[in-house]
Write a structure and sequence with these properties.
Layout (H helix, E strand, L loop, with lengths): L10 E7 L2 E7 L7 E5 L10 H7 L4 E5 L17 H15 L4 E6 L1 H12 L4 E7 L14 H16 L9 H11 L5 H11 E3 L5 E3 L15 H10 L4 E6 L19 E6 L6 H4 L1 H12 L3
Length: about 290
């Protein structure tokens, strides 16, 4: 199989947050304006390689591995909460020393960058999120605190006895990647797999992400607080969704009404990973939003 055609290969760097050594990649051009790409849950920073290659001519592009993902440290005892992910982004930006930046995130990463843009609106030039708006209205009815905590304890106890699957070879892990993401090209599926697995002492392979990122912290979703943060965003916002995704249309359900200045785009024949499924149309729309050629 031919390797994925990547325009810009990154270098690996590290920074610290809450004493965790976290990893990020740097695609070069430090003299250009900063852009940070934040991946989704159970993903990794190298999932952005194709997108970063299209943007690195115009930006200093960096992409972190979230805590518990990729080549970043696992947070022992962590709840892997949204607040911790936002903190890690703030620490990364302090590390690189830039005062203004453009942000792009997918899914969990989209939720992270939108919150950051609301917390520090004076520092963000523009922000883009691929399906990063969280649950639509009506599906996050708050369970009693007792039930939430019971469910979380049960989930933690279940994960303690869950053994992450091990694959005899990278090709077997690749088969799992293709089953989970049937729209991926063979080259991209292999690329995501190679950078998404680690080899164990016995020669088998397993995914790099921490088993415990599979659960959510036992807090009720703060819809009102999240929407207040969205309303604080002063820069232009680009929101994207795949028409075949499980994510609901945020215009129809009113979530986009909390943004002052947004552009919304849907993409045909694309699921939740629309930047993979419809790479060229997505990059074209993103560049138009960013006003770059």
């Amino acid at each position: 199989m031919a390797p994925l055609a990547i325009k810009r290969y990154p270098t690996s760097q590290n920074f610290f947050s809450q004493r965790l050594r976290l990893h990020y990649v740097d695609y070069g051009s430090p003299e250009k304006p900063l852009m940070v790409l934040v991946h989704g849950s159970r993903d990794h920073c190298r999932a952005w390689d194709l997108v970063a290659g299209e943007l690195a001519e115009h930006y200093h592009v960096i992409a972190p591995d979230l805590r518990g993902h990729g080549d970043s440290a696992w947070a022992i005892g962590s709840q892997y909460s949204m607040a911790e992910y936002v903190l890690d982004l703030a620490q990364l930006l302090r590390h690189v020393g830039e005062e203004r930046m453009t942000l792009l995130g997918h899914s969990l990463g989209g939720a992270v960058v939108l919150r950051y843009a609301g917390l520090f609106p004076d520092t963000v030039v523009s922000v883009a999120a691929i399906e990063g708006l969280g649950p639509p209205p009506g599906v996050d009815s708050a369970e009693p605190a007792e039930q939430r905590l019971r469910n979380w304890i049960a989930a933690m106890q279940g994960l303690a006895s869950r053994t992450p699957h091990r694959y005899r070879s990278i090709s077997k892990a690749l088969e799992r990647m293709q089953d989970a993401n049937p729209n991926l090209s063979p080259e991209l599926a292999e690329h995501l797999t190679v950078h998404g697995v680690m080899r164990m002492e016995d020669g088998t392979y397993t995914w790099k992400f921490d088993n415990y990122v599979r659960t959510f912290a036992p807090h009720a979703y703060d819809r009102e607080g999240t929407q207040e943060l969205w309303a604080r965003i002063e820069c232009p916002v680009f929101l994207a969704r795949g028409k075949d995704s499980w994510a609901e249309n945020p215009v129809d359900d009113g979530r986009t009404s909390h943004f002052k200045d947004y552009t919304y785009r849907e993409f045909d024949n694309a699921g939740h990973w629309l930047h993979h499924d419809q790479f060229e149309p997505f990059v074209t729309e993103l560049k138009a939003f960013l006003e770059i050629d």
